[in-house]
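Fold it.
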Amino acid sequence: MPGKDVLPPGPKRDFVSELYVHYREAGRPPLPEIAARTGKQAPAASRKVSRETIRRLLTGTTTSQWAVVDAVFRALCEMQGRDPDGRRWPESEDDRWDDSPPATCREHLRRLWNNDIDGLDRDEEPSAPPAAPVPAAPEVPQPRKGGGWGGTAAPADDPWATGAPLKAPAQSGGYSDEPPF
């Protein structure tokens, strides 16, 4: 792991530190061994990652594409016998109230990789994707003519549908103290 003088604190260091944690947990395997495992991974479309690319990822001199980072990460997880989609942190008794899904190792690494690409610190990262737009409310049906209790239709703009016409606010700019019913 590069020192803070070589790789200063920030999003790149956070990303490299997380990848380095998995490298250490795998027993600091030789780079050719990691490279060989990346070539054996499914799907068949994944290509072998060179040991030079792996070295540059672990030293923070490159960020690379997510497919490359993910291949190296999966190889390291395989070497340490860890599920890449397993929980990153164990659940504690204090966190039982939190209903949000726990971050997996892969999700956490991808979040740090995105922050490195975007140049965002952890406190600047977006917390959740934007919410979906709210669908428009259904149209309220209009009262029937001649129907209802009074036999006459209520004005369309009367929210209480009493059949009485709405009074305009007084010229002084205030509203009437009369109840609407």
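The two ends are 75 Å apart (CA to CA).
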